[in-house]
Design a protein that fits this description.
It contains seven helices and eight strands. By secondary structure, it is an alpha+beta fold. It has two domains: about 110 residues, no CATH class; about 90 residues, no CATH class. A four-stranded antiparallel beta sheet has the order 4-7-6-5. A two-stranded antiparallel ribbon has the order 1-2. A hairpin with a 7-residue loop joins β5 and β6.
Length: about 210
């Protein structure tokens, strides 16, 4: 960087212009870095098979908003931190009440959702299908909740679409619906901190590139 001046006023004016240029450079670099981290996090989430909906919970914002600053900073976060954090850390999940965790194993049960798109539970499954689940103890193996095919009066014929259906449900056929486990260990599927650190290492270069324009 080369600065030429003749009087003290010229020096002060030039330094002020450079300071303003620095503010714009730092602010632009933080905007760029925030977008890069957000893009990297969303890409990791979708790449891990966790879905676009979870990926879209990732947000980025630059502070201070609406004005350039030498102290500009980027904040990147998820609106579902518990879920994202669990997949980044490989968390151990246990039942809140100290009982079993019911994991759906039936194809239809895996697609069913509860209120507000919550994970399906045995209670909700029974309400939706009008059937009772039976507990099956298995020595040395995890127990099951099974459907014996005995139907009660139900509110709807189709537990997924809630539309009338002419399908005939097989009776007296035992189908495993849930497997009961004491806990679940999630595999570590994300490295969000590593992605953020990789972008952070490029920030000085982003600032210099913008400042020298």
């Amino acid at each position: 960087m080369k600065i030429t001046f003749q009087t003290e006023e010229d020096l002060q004016a030039q330094l002020h212009r450079e300071y303003l240029a620095g503010e714009r450079a730092v602010t632009a670099a933080m905007d760029r870095a925030g977008r890069a981290v957000k893009r990297a996090w969303r890409g990791q989430i979708t790449g891990a098979g966790l879905g676009r909906r979870l990926a879209n919970t990732v947000r980025a914002r630059r502070y201070p908003e609406g004005t350039p600053s030498m102290n500009a900073a980027a904040l990147i976060w998820s609106k579902a931190p518990e879920i994202v954090g669990a997949h980044e850390e490989g968390s151990l999940i246990r039942s809140k009440d100290g009982f079993w965790l019911a994991i759906p194993v039936d194809r239809v049960a895996k697609r069913m959702r509860g209120p507000r798109n919550a994970r399906i539970t045995p209670h909700i499954w029974e309400e939706r299908t009008g059937k009772r689940l039976r507990f099956v103890y298995r020595r040395g193996r995890f127990p099951l909740l099974v459907d014996d095919g005995t139907a009660r009066a139900r509110r709807t014929s189709d537990p997924l679409s809630f539309k009338a259906s002419k399908r005939r449900f097989r009776r007296n056929v035992t189908i495993p619906i849930f497997v009961l486990v004491p806990q679940v260990k999630l595999p570590k599927r994300l490295d969000l901190a590593g992605a953020a650190e990789a972008v952070a290492g490029k920030v000085p270069g982003m600032i210099v590139e913008r400042w020298s324009r």
